[in-house]
Amino acid sequence: MKKIITYGTYDMFHPGHLKLLKRAKALGDHLTVAISSDEFNQLKGKSSYYSFEDRAEIVEALTIVDEVIREDNWEQKVTDIQKLNIDTFVIGDDWEGHFDFLKEYCEVVYLKRTEGISTTKIKEDLKETTK
Ligand code: C2G
């Protein structure tokens, strides 16, 4: 069984998130998604609209997702990959090159980001329409 892992905040779940997860799952048989905790989001300089619990519940409900874990820090990826016997680490190409160090432990794949959509853009567009 080929195991895939990916990491992210996944706030205000949108088509860009879904397209990433679908392509990640298509690379293997089992997909684990590590959802950034609220505390880790602060470290990332991000504040999410929904709590960790709500963001994790939405992603966990997807049939293409087999497992959800917490992402609490930058350092846990290596131990996650070893502990979970991960074959492939996947993330959007906005992170191109940032996680090449994981190539020592598993395959690393950067998938093209879906253009024109982001949680930030959704918030900005909504602000415009409600003016
Ligand atoms: N994504 C995408 N297309 C978009 C928006 C996001 O493909 N239009 C992808 C990102 O590249 C990422 C995933 O969806 O792979 C989740 O995006 P975010 O929730 O923004 O995650 P991020 O803040 O990038 O967290 O340790 C890694 C970090 O936790 C990644």
Structure description:
It is globular and about 50 Å long. Strand 1 (3-8), helix 1 (15-25) and strand 2 (30-36) form a beta-alpha-beta unit. It has helices at 15-25, 38-43, 52-60, 76-83, 119-129, and strands at 3-8, 30-36, 67-71, 88-92, 107-111. By secondary structure, it is an alpha/beta fold. Bound molecules: [cytidine-5'-phosphate] glycerylphosphoric acid ester.
Present the secondary structure layout.
Elements: E1 3-8, H1 15-25, E2 30-36, H2 38-43, H3 52-60, E3 67-71, H4 76-83, E4 88-92, E5 107-111, H5 119-129
Parallel strand pairs: 1-2, 1-4, 2-3, 4-5
Computed CA radius of gyration, to the nearest angstrom? 15 Å
Helix content: 25-40%
Mean pLDDT: 97
The number of helical runs is 5
Q: How many individual β-strands?
A: 5
Structural class: alpha/beta
What sort of overall outline do the alpha carbons produce when their principal axes are compared? globular
Major β-sheet strand ordering: 3-2-1-4-5
Distance between the termini: 51 Å
Biggest sheet overview: 5 strands, parallel
What compounds are bound to the protein?
[cytidine-5'-phosphate] glycerylphosphoric acid ester
Q: Point out poorly predicted stretches.
A: none
Strand content: 15-25%
- Element string (H = helix, E = strand): EHEHHEHEEH
